[in-house]
Amino acid sequence: MKASTRRWLGSGLIICGAVSAVLLIGGPAPQVAPVPAERSPLAAVAPSPASPRERVAVPVAVTAQPAPSVVESEQQLLARAEALLVAEPSRAIDLLRAGDAQYPRGTLADERQFMKLRARVNLDQIAEARVDATDYLELNPHSPLAGRIHQLLGIRPPFEVPH
Fold first, then answer.
1. What are phi and psi of 16, to 5 degrees?
2. Which domains does the chain have, with CATH numbers?
3. Of all residues in the chain, what percent are helix, strand and coil, respectively (each to 5)?
4. Is the pTM here over 0.70, yes or no?
5. Distance (Å, rounded) from C-alpha 55 to C-alpha 149?
6. DSSP label at 38?
7. Which end of the chain offers a freer environment for a tag, N or C, measured as fewer CB atoms within 10 Å?
8. Who's near 55: CB < 8 A, 6+ residues apart?
9. Per residue in 106-126, pLDDT tens?
C-alpha cells in the first residue's frame, strides 16, 4: 500500500473516531429545522400547546379492514336471504334479485336461483316457480342443483322417459 493511501485512510479513521467520541460523550445535538406538518403524509396535524402557529406531527394508527371478496359478499347475501326465506319470502326474492343485478355472473348464481324458487314455493306461487324452474333448467340442464329443483317442484327431468 502506498504511503499516500495510508495517510488518507489514517486521516479518515481519525475523523471517524473524533465524531464517534463527540457522539458518545454527548456533544451538542445537531440542530434540525422542523418539517412543517402539512408536508408529512404519514402524520396527522395537531396544534402545539407552545404556539398555535407551530404544528406537531402526531402518528396516526390506521387499521384497514380487508374488503370481503366477491364470493364472501355473495355468501353473505345468500345468508341474509336464507334468514328471510320462511318469514318474509317476498323480501328474500327482492334481496336475491338485487344479488342477480350485483353479481350477474357470480359464483353463486345457481344457488340464488334455487333460493328464489324456494321463496316462490313459500309464497304459494307454484305455477310461477315451475315456469322459472323450467326456463332455468332449459339453459342449465346439467346444473348441480337440477335434481333439487326437480324434487322441489315435482318436475320430471327431460332425460327420464315416462312409464
1. -65, -40
2. 70-153 (1.25.40.10)
3. 55, 5, 40
4. no
5. 67
6. G
7. C
8. 36, 37, 38, 45, 46, 47, 48
9. 999 999 999 999 999 999 999
